[in-house]
Specification:
- The chain has about 375 residues and is of the alpha/beta class.
- It is built from nine helices and 14 strands.
- The strands form three sheets. A nine-stranded mixed β-sheet has the order 8-5-9-10-4-11-12-13-14, with helices on both faces.
- β9 (about 205-210), α7 (about 225-240) and β10 form a beta-alpha-beta unit.
- α7 (about 225-240) packs parallel to α8.
């Protein structure tokens, strides 16, 4: 008699082999409906999006003219790719795009890694029997393997990325001022994406594309809206057939409302960042932890690939904070209590009202 084997529908696919392959690739993990996720470099943003940026998707970030908070997202995105030895293409209107690599944040060491490093230093001054020394070497090798397979790192925004992370890697830096025609820029992007063709059963290494301030005044094509739309649409189609993720930031305040809406419609994942005024007394009364906020991040759209079921988020607007002025974290907005008490957080609130008093309408 045959063993109890789960029945598989005719429209189901077997991802066992692909899952085993993906588990061996750093910075890549399997998601629902046959999708694969690439880390954004921000742990909280990965959780909000359900796992990270979907492989083969186009992510667009709407900039704020008051503050360059979009650079926090693009820096972490690029650093995460370099830490995982992933090919990177970076385009910017700046005069020296390659010099921007020196401003990327460095990964932070965890407490376990620090304690293990201290133990290793103490071990150098001790004489241990060869049996135990062999045991410690095996432990260290296992730890290094776990470290390499870490999906998302915490990055220290005050410490620059070490040179060895990007010295010998495949990095293509493009100056948008030199690209008078978007056709030439698109050819370079297509050439980069051709190195990571889409093959679910044999994924070598995913790629990352980061385009900063598309349509900035420094670009010669800033007034060519039709050309920019054609470029973004063609890039999106090319990414669909490759193992890569593209992140594009653009300034909507410089475009016409209709053109900005069409750009937003092309995005698979759409987020926006907004600066917070330094002294806004009304906003400080409404939100808890206002003094620690540096900006707001709003999620307008989440990529839906291989499914027609919409993603329903618990919240769409989050506060951007710098934990200990080092790492970027995202938190749900919490309304300040009216009675002046400490109040409760968004996750721990169990009632519809913020007051601790019970009433007939509380449930």
């Amino acid at each position: 008699m045959a063993g109890n084997k789960p029945r598989v529908g005719s429209f189901s696919r077997n991802f066992t082999a692909a899952s085993n392959t993906i588990s061996q690739i750093p910075g890549l993990k399997h998601g629902p409906n046959g999708t694969m996720f690439l880390s954004s470099g921000i742990l909280d943003l990965d959780k909000i999006l359900g796992g990270g940026f979907t492989l083969g998707s186009l992510v667009m970030v709407m900039e704020d003219p008051e503050a360059p908070h979009h650079m926090l997202l693009i820096r972490n995105f690029m650093s995460q790719g370099l830490v995982h030895n992933q090919p990177l293409l970076y385009a910017s209107p700046a005069k020296d795009p390659r010099g921007f690599l020196g401003t990327l944040p460095s990964p932070m060491f965890s407490k376990d890694e620090k304690s293990r490093d201290r133990d290793a230093e103490q071990e150098k001054g001790l004489r241990i029997a060869w049996q135990y020394k062999k045991y410690f070497e095996e432990q260290n090798s296992e730890f290094q393997r776990d470290e390499k397979s870490e999906y998302c790192n915490d990055f220290d925004l005050r410490k620059p990325l070490e040179r060895h992370f990007y010295s010998g890697q495949q990095i293509d830096c493009i100056r948008l001022e030199d690209s008078a025609d978007l056709t030439t820029f698109h050819d370079r992007c297509s050439s980069f994406l051709s190195q990571t063709p889409r093959n679910d059963r044999n994924i070598t290494c995913p790629g990352r594309i980061a385009i900063q301030s598309l349509g900035a005044p420094q670009c010669d094509f800033a007034d060519k809206e039709c050309d920019m739309l054609s470029f973004v649409r063609s890039l999106k189609n090319t990414i669909r057939s490759s193992n890569a993720v593209a992140v594009i930031t653009f300034p909507p305040s410089l475009f016409s409302p209709s053109f900005s809406k069409r750009l937003q419609h092309l995005a698979d994942t759409l987020v926006s960042v907004k600066a917070i005024p330094d002294e806004d007394k009304e906003l400080a009364k409404l939100l808890t932890g206002y003094q620690d906020m540096v900006g707001l991040l709003s999620v307008h759209k989440v990529a839906r690939i291989n499914t027609q079921v919409p993603t329903i988020l618990e919240a769409t607007t989050f506060s951007m904070k710098l934990q200990k002025r080092r790492s970027l974290i995202l938190e749900c907005l919490n309304q300040a209590p009216i009675d002046g008490s400490s109040g409760s957080s968004y996750a721990s609130s169990g009632s519809c009202t913020g007051s601790s008093k019970t009433g007939a309408l509380d449930f």
